[in-house]
TrEMBL record:
Domain Pyrrolo-quinoline quinone repeat: from-to ranges: 41-372, 502-558
Textual note on the cofactor: Binds 1 Ca(2+) ion per subunit.
Keywords: Calcium, Disulfide bond, Metal-binding, Oxidoreductase, PQQ, Signal
Similarity comment: Belongs to the bacterial PQQ dehydrogenase family.
Keyword Disulfide bond: yes
Protein name as it appears in the record: PQQ-dependent dehydrogenase, methanol/ethanol family
């Protein structure tokens, strides 16, 4: 592992570790405080509950139709822009896809870049990125008496980087992933106490997945927990899964694999985290096993495809629930985890975790111990599974839609893209509604055998994708849905179809309005109670990030990244035509280029387009220095005497 330091000596940084312990819980407290302030958006899910919910009400059902562009910012980078900017204490921090430039803007005058941090990366990272060169966001640590606030960035070349939030100077960077074996970084870092958590990407290249904790001040690795292999590598606590031993307990990271297949078995995590300070557990999902061809890896392939609850201090796992044992369809389970406290069907108040999975099931667990509370189909067209047995947690498969060698599986729903993918969804605690951006895509699947070669794609299946049964398969449209879901009743309060997948995720607000972006380039606002479309705006490019909102100088703004790309956009951004290319995405989204083209930036909206520039039209105007003014005035003095009469 390589280590780079820029702004402090190793000795002073080591001393900072000693000072870090007393401030750890204070860092959490400060982040919670900042997240509760509607002026801020301090992490990708807005708060530790990861609910993307804002209490701001200036923009509401009655006023949302008056939203207009207030200002915008171009990152200067094409390809897919996922995640959200961060807003902290009047500053906005913006990230881009590769080359992963980071910008800071002062919201008093966002027309001027306060600082920009441009890394120099190994360009070969682009060649091993699975599904475009995206990045899902930044993380913020509030600082203490020893070290000032920091911004954390992941880079496609596998590095985690700490940046001084005030100056943009790189403080340290660590090599988390090795691109020579296909391991890249696209995940948004996640700060808990004085640790920053980072996942990994590359399961499609046979990378063995892990999550790693680094000290925020020094970059020193605290611990690393793998998804496969020996228990000591996976970091299983002594009481692991004690409340649910039927989920599986010890030695399964090896015993559920054939031979040494676990060493190249996938299970990467490139999605989203959530954290409960009261339980002191963080939650995330591990991804698909490698290769996609299930014949090459007999067994349940634990602990890929699992929901994890871990201690952030030492990484020890309290529980893990595997959603798709022996995955046959690339249903990588890294999707968003949203935390809530609700009464269950028996009226008992419980601390819940709700997770819309790529496999087409939305799961709700008791996050204190991993108990499975519910497992509902995201859409009634899910067909690989008939139901999930709530007693055992095991999905009851329909063999008609299984995969195997020398067989082409037809009309499998959902496709490998899942009925849910990387989108970061939202939860409205007042309405007890989860707003979910859904894919509506099915597939044909034909596996083939292939050898493992480090740094090369290790998939073993050819896919054709197309709209689900509710879409228009002849026109290749109707590839998405947006839904409001009640995790207790299992009911969908409303649902609407979209032309393309609602890939980026959603925002919920106390104003009774939910927002999302679309691949064809709209940001839309719907009535949270009914789903009625209240407002939309055509962005310069398709949106695969999720909207966010913040307040500044007493005014509420809504912002969203534009920049089409990601897995659904690979055909467009890389100019591919073979329908099976892009792991099947090119065929599914063959019509996308007729609705949008590449771009890259942030669009910010407010009521009537008001901003610091409408408050004072002179904000940000060029002002000459006093010396320049004097020189200008001298040049403007009228000629006199003989000079005036000359000619």
């Amino acid at each position: 592992m390589k280590r780079f330091f820029y702004s402090a000596s190793a000795l002073s940084l080591a001393a900072a570790i000693v000072m870090a312990a007393p401030s750890a819980s204070l860092a959490n407290d400060k982040l919670v405080e900042l997240a509760n302030d509607p002026q801020n958006w301090v992490m990708t899910g807005r708060n530790y509950d990861a609910n993307n919910y804002s209490k701001s009400t200036e923009i509401n059902k009655d006023t949302v139709a008056d939203l207009k562009p207030a200002w915008s910012f171009s990152t200067g980078v094409l390809h897919g822009h996922e995640g959200t900017p961060l807003v902290v204490d009047g500053m906005m921090y913006i990230h881009s896809p590769f080359p992963n430039t980071t910008f800071a803007l002062n919201l008093d005058d966002p027309g001027k870049i306060v600082w920009q941090n441009k890394p120099k990366q190994d360009p070969t990272a682009r060649a091993v990125a699975c599904c475009d060169v995206v990045n899902r966001g930044l993380a913020y640590w509030p600082g203490d008496d020893e070290v000032g606030p920091l911004i954390f960035r992941t880079q496609l070349d596998g590095k985690i980087v700490a940046i001084d939030a005030k100056t943009g100077e790189t403080r340290w960077e660590m090599e988390n992933s090795d691109i020579k074996v296909g391991s890249t970084l696209t995940i948004a870092p996640y700060v808990i106490k004085d640790n920053v958590l980072v996942g990994s990407s590359g399961a499609e290249l046979g990378v063995r997945g892990y999550v790693t904790s680094y000290n925020v001040k020094t970059g020193e690795q605290q611990w690393r927990a793998y998804a496969t292999g020996p228990d000591e590598d996976i970091r299983l606590a002594e009481n692991f899964n004690a409340p649910n031993p039927h989920y599986g307990q010890k030695n399964l990271g090896i015993e559920t694999w054939e031979g040494d297949a676990w060493k190249i078995g996938g299970g990467t995590n490139w999605g989203w985290y959530a954290y409960d300070p009261g339980e002191d557990l963080f939650y995330y999902g591990s991804g698909n096993p490698a290769p996609w061809n299930e014949t090459m890896r007999p067994g349940d392939n634990k602990w890929t495809m699992a929901i994890w609850g871990r201690d952030p201090d030492d990484g020890m796992a309290k529980f893990a629930y595997q959603k798709t044992p022996h995955d046959e369809w690339d249903y990588a389970g890294v999707n968003v985890m949203m935390l809530s406290e609700q009464e269950d069907k028996e009226g008992k108040m419980r601390k819940l975790l709700t997770h819309p999975d790529r496999n087409g099931i939305v799961y709700t667990l008791d996050r204190t111990n991993g108990d499975l509370v519910s497992a509902d189909k995201i859409d009634d067209t899910v067909n690989w599974v008939t139901q999930v047995d709530l007693e055992t947690g095991i999905p009851i498969r329909d063999p008609e839609f299984g995969t195997r060698m020398d067989h082409v599986g037809r009309d499998i729903c959902p496709s490998a893209m899942g009925y849910h993918n990387q989108g970061h969804d939202s939860y409205d605690p007042e309405r007890q509604s989860f707003f979910m951006g859904i894919n509506h895509i099915c597939m044909d699947w034909e596996p083939f055998m292939l050898p493992y070669r480090a740094g090369q794609f290790f998939v073993g299946a050819t896919l054709n994708m197309y709209p689900g049964p509710k879409g228009d398969r002849q026109a290749n449209l109707g590839l998405g849905q947006v839904k409001a879901y009640d995790a207790i009743s299992g009911d969908f309060k409303w649902e609407v179809m979209e032309r393309f997948a609602a890939w980026g995720g959603t925002l919920a607000t106390a104003g009774g309005v939910m927002f999302y972006g679309t691949l064809d380039g709209f940001i839309k606002a719907r009535d949270s109670d009914t789903g009625e479309l209240l407002w939309k705006f055509k962005l310069p490019s398709g949106a695969i990030g999720h909207p966010m909102t913040y307040e500044h100088d007493g005014r509420q703004y809504v912002a969203i990244y534009y920049g089409v790309g990601g897995w659904p956009g690979v055909g467009l951004v890389f100019d591919l035509n073979d329908p099976t290319a892009g792991l099947g995405a090119v065929g599914a989204f063959s019509e996308l280029a007729n609705y949008t083209q590449m771009g890259g930036g942030v669009m910010v909206f407010s009521l009537d387009g008001e901003s610091v520039y409408t408050d004072d039209v002179n904000t940000g105007e060029y002002e000459p220095t006093s010396a320049q003014k004097g020189e200008r005035d001298a040049n403007l003095k009228p000629a006199s005497g003989s000079e005036a009469n000359r000619g």
